[in-house]
Amino acid sequence: MDVLIVDDEALARQRLVRMVEKIEGFCVAAEADGADEAMVAIAAHDPDIVLLDIQMPGRDGLSLARDIAALEDPPAIIFCTAYDQYALDAFGTNAVGYLLKPVKAEQLLQVLEKATKLNKIQRVAAQKNPASKKENQRTHISAKTRRGVELIPLDDVRYFLADHKYVTVYHRHGEHLLDETLKELEEEFNGRFVRIHRNSLVAIKHIEALERTPQGQYQVRLADTEMRPVISRRHVSDLKELLKVI
């Protein structure tokens, strides 16, 4: 599990880094000393968990937590603070844990394991309730083009890629911009498309293989396209498990 540590105090970050790195199965993907840097790090590293201080210069941790919760496929949030008066507000942001500084190793381990279990429960729930069972599920995606509205057969779609406010659908005959969010597409076509990154969904039936780049990243090879969508580290193991049963 990849962890992002957000704290404006360098010594506090260094202490958490040492503690996390001692726990098997967890590693620190990045550090940030404020809200803006944290959002950049989340976009770049796609962490599973964010260890977040509350009192920071500029935007505080509570404000940042609300922004994180609004993201597509947000990481779990665990607050680490020296003040217990923020606990009620913190859990109003759907945080999975609240640790008081100085953080103790045993307490950190417990809350990290809790965050891991919650992620697994959410994945199992999604598998048991695939949206693909909906009787009214669309068979085509509509896209506005210069020629008007075009219908793209869902069977031709290879993947969806989000970039800021836009989602691009990549299909056998090209690509088009959509007026839909990645989250909406994921909910509707769960069971036919799988999330491989915070910004992308791929068609399960068109996955041919997982490939590893010289830089150590994984990417997906899809049928009938040269595009190779990148898989974030947090989704690699789930995708490998999926490929064992399809």
Précis, in short:
With 246 residues, the chain is of the alpha/beta class. The protein folds into two domains: 2-128, Response regulator (Rossmann fold, 3-Layer(aba) Sandwich); 134-245, OB fold (Dihydrolipoamide Acetyltransferase, E2P).
CATH overall fold name of the largest domain: Rossmann fold
Q: Which CATH class of the largest domain?
A: Alpha Beta
- Relative strand content: 25-35%
Rg calc: 20 Å
CATH architecture classification name of the largest domain? 3-Layer(aba) Sandwich
Q: Give the termini separation.
A: 25 Å
Number of helices: 7
Order of helices and strands: EHEHEHEHEHEEEEEHEEEEEH
Task: Return the average pLDDT rounded to an integer.
Answer: 85
Assigned CATH superfamily of the largest domain: Response regulator
What is the topology?
Layout: E1 2-6, H1 10-21, E2 27-32, H2 35-45, E3 49-52, H3 61-69, E4 76-81, H4 87-91, E5 97-100, H5 105-128, E6 140-145, E7 148-153, E8 157-163, E9 166-171, E10 174-178, H6 182-188, E11 193-197, E12 200-203, E13 207-212, E14 218-222, E15 230-231, H7 233-245
Parallel strand pairs: 1-2, 1-3, 3-4, 4-5
Antiparallel strand pairs: 6-7, 8-9, 8-12, 9-10, 11-12, 13-14, 14-15
How would you explain this protein's 3D organization?
The protein is an alpha/beta fold. The chain folds into two domains: 2-128, 3-Layer(aba) Sandwich (Rossmann fold), CATH 3.40.50.2300; 134-245, Beta Barrel (OB fold (Dihydrolipoamide Acetyltransferase, E2P)). Helices cover 33% and strands 31% of the residues. The longest helix is centred in the middle third of the chain and has 24 residues, at 105-128. The model is unreliable at 124-128 and 130-135 (pLDDT under 50).
